Amino acid sequence: MHAKRFVSIPAAVWLALLASQPGCTKTETLAPPSPPPETVTPPTPASVPPASPTLPTTEPGWEFVEVNGSVTVGGKPALKGTPIGKNDEIITGPKSSALIAVGSGSIVEVRERTQMKLGSSERRKISVQLTVGKLWSFFEKPTDYEVVTANAVAGVRGTVFFADASRKNTTFICACKGKTHIHESTEGRVAKSRAFDKEVDGHDWEHRAVAFITKGKTTVVKEFPPITEVPPKKPITHTAQQAAQILNVLRAQPL
User: Fold this and answer.
1) pTM
2) Least crowded by CB within 10 Å, which of 14, 29, 107, 142?
3) DSSP string for 88-144
């Protein structure tokens, strides 16, 4: 029997052999995953200004609340709820009319065969140019408003007045209720005496009226006594019953 021989293997070689065997790999320390790169928003160039907000093209609060017959605004048919743009022209045909809400607490009746344009003036924030026809304005709250015709101006801050420019060279203005500042438009003309310029007080539906009649370059102004008779001796074109109907529409509007 042969004796067994033992070979001495150096420790370094022994460790190398163990490492080469499957499943006997040394433990590796894994580095943590790198965080995702940060998203950097490029700065807005100073030369590019921010977009400007779109400016409204309509007068705030001006819209049709009632339309009867043929009525156009800006050359297009008007319907209930149609907004009115600044400098828009409103035209009513024969046997046609409209009611226009002017913000909260105010309303304007536009009668048949009327041509008017919404704008502003140096005197008032809201200026309606009445070329021809009839307007009945109801302002229960203070409003910077006027109606301008070829030969007269009527301005209010909280009242009811009627303007009639349906006859050529003639304007009839009635201070129906409250105070209305009425004055002559002397542009290109001279007054027969001195230019008419006064505050006319209609009190509580007294209907104090003033007529402006122009012949050539001369304007004659005539004041009428208040209509206190019930019924009045002469029929008027705007009655208390009509006013009540319009005011009912006004008060039915949302605040």
Assistant:
1) 0.72
2) 29
3) -EEEE-TT-EEEEEESSSEEEEE-SS-EEEEE--SS-SEEEEEEESEEEEEESS---
Q: ∠ CA 161-118-197 to the nearest 5 degrees?
A: 45
Q: 109 is in which domain, residue-wise?
A: 58-251
pLDDT tens for 46-77 read 444 444 443 344 455 789 999 999 999 999 99
Angstrom distance (rounded) from CA 136 to CA 97: 11
pLDDT in tens, 205-221: 888 999 999 988 888 99
Residue 14 lies in a domain: no
* Total of domains in the chain: 1
The C-alpha atoms of residue 155 and residue 132 are separated, in whole angstroms, by 18
3-state secondary structure 165-203: CCCCCEEEEEEEECEEEEEECCCCCEECCCCCEEEEECC
Where residue 70 sits, what CATH number does that domain have?
2.60.120.1440
Q: How far apart, in whole angstroms, are the C-alpha atoms of residue 30 and residue 8? A: 36
- Indicate whether 30 belongs to any domain: no
Beta-carbon count within 10 A of 32 CB: 5
DSSP helix/strand/coil, 212: strand
Whether 194 maps to a domain, the answer reads yes
The encoded tokens of residue 118 equal 């919404």
Structure tokens at 137: 């304005």
- DSSP three-state, residue 19: helix
How many angstroms separate the CA atoms of 77 and 102, rounded?
A: 19
